[in-house]
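Supplementary Note 2. Why include the ligand at all?

Several targets in our set were suspected to adopt different conformations when bound, so apo predictions alone were not considered sufficient. For every target with a known small-molecule partner we therefore ran a joint prediction. The input for iron/sulfur cluster is given below.
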Amino acid sequence: MKNRKLLLENVHIPGIETYDVYRKNGGYRSVEKAIKSLTPDEVVEEVKKSGLRGRGGAGFPTGMKWSFLAKPEGIPRYLVCNADESEPGTFKDRYLMEKIPHLLVEGMITASYALGANTSYIYIRGEFMYILHILEKAIAEAYDNGFLGKNILGKGYDLDLFVVPGGGAYICGEETALLESLEGKRGNPRIKPPFPAVKGLWGAPTVVNNVETIAAVVPIVNDGGEAYAAIGIGKSTGTKLISACGNLVKPGVYEIDLGLSIEEFIYGDDYCQGIANNKRLKACVPGGSSVPILPHYLVTKTANGDDRLMSYESLAEGAFASGSMLGSGGFIVFDEDQCIVRNTWNFTRFYAHESCGQCSPCREGTGWMEKVLYRLETGNGNLRDIDLLAEINKKIEGNTICPLGDAAAWPVAAAIRHFRDEFEWHVSHKEEAIKRNYGLSKEPMLA
Amino acid sequence: MKVTIDDIEVEVEAGTSILNAARKIGGEVVPPAMCYYSKLPGTGGKCRTCLVEVAAGSTADPRPMPKLVASCSTPVMDGMIVKNKTSQRVHEGRSAVVEFLLINHPLDCPVCDQAGECNLQDLGYEHGSVKTRYEEERRTFDPIDIGDKIKLHMNRCILCYRCVEVANQLTEKRVHGVMHRGEHAEISTYIEHAIDNEFSGNMIDVCPVGALTDRTFRFKSRVWFLKPMEAECDCTKCAGKVVLWMFGKEIYRVTGRKDQYGEIETIDNKTAWICNECRYDKKDLAKWKVIGPRVIDRHSVISQGKYETSINSPIKKIN
Amino acid sequence: MPNMKRENNIAQTAAEFNGFSKETIAKFNEIKNHFPVGKEKSAIIRMLHLAQTEVGWLSTEAMDAVATFLNIQTIEVYEVATFYTMFHVNPVGKHVFEVCRTGPCMLVGSDQIIDYISEKLNIKVGETTADGEFTLKTVECLGACGYAPVLQCKYKFHENLTKDKVDELIEAYRSGIIEN
Ligand SMILES: Cc1cc2nc3c(=O)[nH]c(=O)nc-3n(C[C@H](O)[C@H](O)[C@H](O)COP(=O)(O)O)c2cc1C
Ligand code: SF4
Ligand code: SF4
Ligand code: SF4
Ligand code: FES
Ligand code: FES
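The joint prediction is reproduced in token form.
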């Protein structure tokens, strides 16, 4: 069962980025199956059965999200693919789109059919302009072969698909900011309600899904929702792309069965092959920069001593006290020589830099935390600053328009929770803190 | 729909926001609003000062909402139970918001045109901790003239976007807006550009702080030394219903008439925005018919005892 | 391939007057057709990318031309252009090195790479070399964290950077081996 691949199986076939090779290897079967033999609702039903959860970060059940889409008469509906991929540590969508662009195009057609959308968009971060061109080429081929345009497969279904670039803004990954940006505006998240399922792109009902979510629709429709649901563990069904980075022997994008043990993922020969340069593991941020950091003794085991698995549930086990989240699958590994204070400052600077600036707690609070952390990191902090950070955190959390405020607050709270000794050391050993790193935290090492 | 706010029940139409339901009750239960402006559709949701706690979502789904919500942009549901003054969480959340609004705010009140009629000053007084723990350098911008009539003190701006909506909704051409993002976001014309449009002066009236000020008035006096008089004139461009801010027989400033929420009043079913001619060019008393003293319904720490307030004069009914 | 037809695409001459090439204008017209009638403003970000590619940066004139093209107010273009970090609203060098500085890159040495480029080009972050060839900027996560450290120059990614690779890159750009 190991190394089963649903999305990346054919990635290494030469020429797979072209229509001909992709098609020869079973491409566009899901479109044929859906359009020729299933009603849109039946496609939605398969996705529900599959247990697929959104791969963009929040893990919301995709089938349920689709069934919430409002369907008023006479108003178009839109499917928008979120290819903004900007969460630090996450680079899986890029890999998929670059290597096997037709998989996303195919997923978009099948999903659009299920939702009754006749125009769909892929919103891609502007930095990925070269991938935009790859996708446009794939789309043109799909038009040429009758999978896009009018009367697809002669069954009367019409679909146009376009790719739209962003201009450099992490916040445009948030779905309503994405829609604003897609409408040609500043990427300010919208005030909800109304939600996109009711009022989305240009005020019309809209579904926004991550690249990987949409790609997963292809094997789900091909093999049936039940087959997909049989993979994985509990409510974490199917496979997941994990982008691994940081101090690893073999960073990169891996497709895993959900439920794989983290021990195996970090150290296994088929995966990351351990920590680079023969160093020891210090910490791990398992799901993109927004999720809580785990100290080494909570990475491969939970606080109860159970094996920690790559699943929504296992990674969250222990909640804020000793758990984290699967998030977007951006798996960031820190070796023993990394400085947690510096990294926390770095991440906070990221959020301050990416805040849209609309609401006061995030606009002012992220900048404030960044300044305090910078002081601590550069040997100018004091002990009260550590409590101050926790306090600012609480003032931001839950009081903002969109989750970016929380995403900025949580990593700081988790870093202080697990690495307080290291923060305090930065205060007590100012000179030293500038010259060297603290090393591993004091808690017991597990093998 | 029935909503309960701080134990007071009120009946409102579907689609009404919690804030407007609270305004229907009036008094203490009304959350403060710095960015929402009922006369400018599309405003609200940004400043977060109007946060309230929803203790029960509706009769159908009585679960509480996990987070505080912006009352200005959350519609009521039948049977919703809301806590404002009666919630400790709201008090804490609002204090946090006020602190955030103040950390980069200059301590300009003594020299600020808005002092005495400033929503932020009021809020700071009610919710702000006496001393902020912000030790960093404050963000600063130089004040700039946008046209010959309006001065922008970006340091004081809270990015409520109200002035942007005035330009969008009352003028033909918007030449100012929000540039950059995050803490660097600022109101600007980007290139030197005069704001010049018959109704552009209303931006000054909607600004909840002293960020946009009337250059024809600037620094001539402190607001609380002036006597506000209701006046009107025959104007071809606007309704001509204004407040004259007088010192002796001299008109120091002309503004629109604001209600207890700091919003321009509705007169004859229309928002009584005033035109730039009335605002800037009619500083001669002969041009006005003075009606009488204007009641200022304010609870500002500075305004108390300085103006005739609704506390010591009969409440003026605003339709 | 797009099948949404639209009248009144601005004549090429009008925008040529503002300085864009025929190719860019043709592209503008094509992109506008990706959106329903009345929703053409959606084309703005891609148009700004094209404008920047042609002019080298987003001068006020270039942005004003985009506004004319979309029939929107200039302020709307300025608001958008200043929001997104890929747009250079101030003049930049011929080659802009945008080096990622975010956590995952930092873990494997992006700070050192940034310092090295800075030393090598003798400019600080945010500055342009005296000959106008290079500008050094730092950016946030480029979505290439597994191949860090990373820099981007005009949509091209350069990954797994080392000091030697940086030397090669600078040489290659200077001599025109890598084209923009
Ligand atoms: C600040 C922020 C950034 C986000 N960035 C991304 C992103 O880059 N890609 C993505 O797919 N989802 C991102 N999301 C999640 C989206 O809002 C949305 O939940 C997702 O696209 C839904 O798709 P899914 O259900 O398929 O996961 C982000 C959310 C927030 C709050
Ligand atoms: S939380 Fe931050 S990013 Fe989200 S709307 Fe508020 S200011 Fe913008
Ligand atoms: S805007 Fe208000 S709080 Fe700020 S300086 Fe002026 S009066 Fe004081
Ligand atoms: S200048 Fe005044 S009205 Fe305009 S956004 Fe700032 S605070 Fe609001
Ligand atoms: S008044 Fe509601 S958020 Fe500003
Ligand atoms: S952190 Fe540098 S590319 Fe992601």
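The longest strand of chain C covers residues 95-100. The radius of gyration of chain C is 18 Å. Comparable summaries for the other entries are listed in the accompanying table.
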